[in-house]
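4.2 Preliminary Data

To establish feasibility before requesting continued support, the project team ran the inverse folding procedure on a target of 262 residues. The structure was first converted into the token representation described in Section 3, and no sequence information of any kind was made available to the design step. The complete token record follows.
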């Protein structure tokens, strides 16, 4: 059975990675396949945004290294809001170094990511060692953890080729217990247990002046086969982020239901 035409509720049984399973359960329960990208620069803004959009989302994606006043309390409060509103935390760290370095970046330093992030993004550029390293570190953290592989990018002129994307799928296959899915623009796998996340989504814009390229939620879900849309500025720059999130959630969910009927 192909991933695209199977309901989220049935796909739960196909997950090898426990975080992917948990995410599909949240998506089904809250009827939302929206991930908000919390690209703000202070703890206060981050927590306020999480509180406002929390009921509408399945995942909150962070770039913790842009938070000026990050501390243990930032992470702690965010985990509290994730529990309160039932969403997962995806740190968009885009690990890209050799395994040993990535292991330290994941567990240590100012951000100790493995202790609070359910999911992290990772580039496959440095080869299979990076997945092995994250997996070992996650095992040490002794919490359900997963990673999301950057299979494609949304930015104009990016250097990822079709061969690179398919080679990334081969790497993923060696670590299905740790890989929750992919960040991609197109469908890269038909496996129902893997989740496709798609950034570059906006209801109003075609792009920014730094290479970002946008499509609307209906297009990425019905035509490109995305499962979870990732929206940053379309929601966080809105005067009412909670209301904007509801609008994107409804558009993405309607597109998902339409896809099932196709
Ligand atoms: P926005 O919707 O404001 O353009 O934000 C998109 C978010 O998704 C950013 O946080 C960016 O880092 C991330 N992202 C992306 O835009 N394209 C990709 O291919 C991969 C990403 O993680």
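Position-by-position output of the design step:
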């Amino acid at each position: 059975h192909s991933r695209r035409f199977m309901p989220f509720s049935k796909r739960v049984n196909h997950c090898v990675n426990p975080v992917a399973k948990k995410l599909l359960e949240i998506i089904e329960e809250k009827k939302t396949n929206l991930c908000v990208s919390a690209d703000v620069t202070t703890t206060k803004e981050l927590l306020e945004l999480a509180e406002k959009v929390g009921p509408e989302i399945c995942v909150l994606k962070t770039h913790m290294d842009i938070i000026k006043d990050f501390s243990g309390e930032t992470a702690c409060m965010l985990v509290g809001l994730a529990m309160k509103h039932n969403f997962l935390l995806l740190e968009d760290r885009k690990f890209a170094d050799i395994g040993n370095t990535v292991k330290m970046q994941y567990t240590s330093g100012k951000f100790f990511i493995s202790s609070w992030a359910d999911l992290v993004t990772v580039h496959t550029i440095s080869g299979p060692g990076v997945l092995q390293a994250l997996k070992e570190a996650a095992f040490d953290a002794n919490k359900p953890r997963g990673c999301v592989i950057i299979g494609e990018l949304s930015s104009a002129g990016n250097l990822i080729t079709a061969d690179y994307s398919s080679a990334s799928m081969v790497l993923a296959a060696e670590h299905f217990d740790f890989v929750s899915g992919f960040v991609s623009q197109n469908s890269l796998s038909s496996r129902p247990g893997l989740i496709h996340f798609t950034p570059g989504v906006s209801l109003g814009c075609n792009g920014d002046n730094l290479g970002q390229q946008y499509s609307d939620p209906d297009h990425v879900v019905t035509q490109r086969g995305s499962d979870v849309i990732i929206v940053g500025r379309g929601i966080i720059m809105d005067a009412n982020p909670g209301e904007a999130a509801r609008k994107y959630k409804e558009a993405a969910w309607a597109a998902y239901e339409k896809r099932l009927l196709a």
